[in-house]
Specification:
This protein has three helices and six strands; from the N terminus they run H-H-H-E-E-E-E-E-E. It has 207 residues and is α+β, with helices and mostly antiparallel strands.
Length: 207
C-alpha cells in the first residue's frame, strides 16, 4: 500500500465552494481589580458608582445637628435654673418687705401703747384725768393711722358712695335728701381702693 497522503479531488471548474471558517484569536482576560475587570462584571460597582455620598460626608451633618441640639438643651436647662433662682429671690425679697412693713406699723403704734400704760398708771391717783388721757391717746392713734396712709373717714351730710360707705341702717329725715349720710355708726380708714374698712353709715330715705 502507498503511504503518501491523498490529495483532495480537484474542484470542477465553475463549482461554488464554501469558505472555511476563520479561527478568532484568543482573548486575554483582564487582571482582577482593574478598571477593565470591573467594567466587564468581574466585580461589583464601588461605593461611588451609584453617585451616593461618602461615609464621612453623610456623618458630618448628623454630628453638627447633634451638637446644635446639645447646645439648645444646655441653654434651656440654664434658663430654667435662672428662672427658679429669680423666683426664690423674689420670694425672699417679698417676705423681707412684709416684715419691714409690719415693723413700721408696730413702731407707729408703740407711742399709743406707751400712753395707754401711762394713763392707767395715773388713773388711781387722779381718776378725772383718765378721760383726758384717753382722748389724747385716741388722737395719737388716729394720727398714726394717717401717717401710714389710712386717714379717718366719718363725714355726715355727704351723698352715699358705695366705694366708701357701708349702709347698716335707713332712717327717715325730712331735712336730708334721700340717699344722704345722716349718721356715722363706725368710722372708716383709707381711701377707695386702699381701705382698711369702709364707713358704716345710716342714710336718709324718701317718706
Amino acid at each position: 500500500m502507498s503511504t503518501q497522503p491523498q490529495q483532495p479531488d480537484p474542484v470542477p471548474e465553475g463549482a461554488v465552494t464554501e469558505p472555511e471558517p476563520e479561527l478568532e484569536p484568543e482573548q486575554e482576560l483582564p487582571a482582577p481589580g482593574t478598571a477593565e475587570a470591573r467594567g466587564a462584571g468581574g466585580e461589583g460597582p464601588g461605593p461611588d458608582a451609584a453617585g451616593g455620598p461618602a461615609v464621612g460626608e453623610a456623618t458630618a451633618p448628623a454630628a453638627e445637628q447633634a451638637a446644635a441640639l446639645a447646645e439648645l438643651d444646655d441653654r434651656w436647662r440654664r434658663a430654667l435654673a435662672d428662672l427658679e433662682n429669680l423666683r426664690k429671690r423674689h420670694a425672699r425679697e417679698l417676705e423681707r418687705e412684709r416684715a419691714a412693713e409690719r415693723a413700721r406699723t408696730a413702731v407707729a403704734l408703740l407711742p399709743v401703747v406707751d400712753n395707754l400704760e401711762l394713763a392707767l398708771s395715773h388713773a388711781e391717783a387722779d381718776p378725772g384725768s383718765i378721760v383726758e388721757g384717753v382722748k389724747a391717746i385716741h388722737d395719737q392713734a388716729v394720727a398714726a393711722l394717717s401717717r401710714l396712709g389710712y386717714e379717718r373717714q366719718g363725714e355726715t351730710g355727704v351723698p352715699f358712695d358705695p366705694a366708701r360707705h357701708e349702709v347698716v341702717g335707713v332712717v327717715e329725715d325730712p331735712e336730708a335728701e334721700p340717699g344722704t349720710v345722716v349718721q356715722v355708726l363706725r368710722p372708716g380708714y383709707g381711701e377707695p381702693g386702699r381701705q382698711l374698712r369702709p364707713v358704716a353709715v345710716a342714710v336718709a330715705k324718701r317718706e
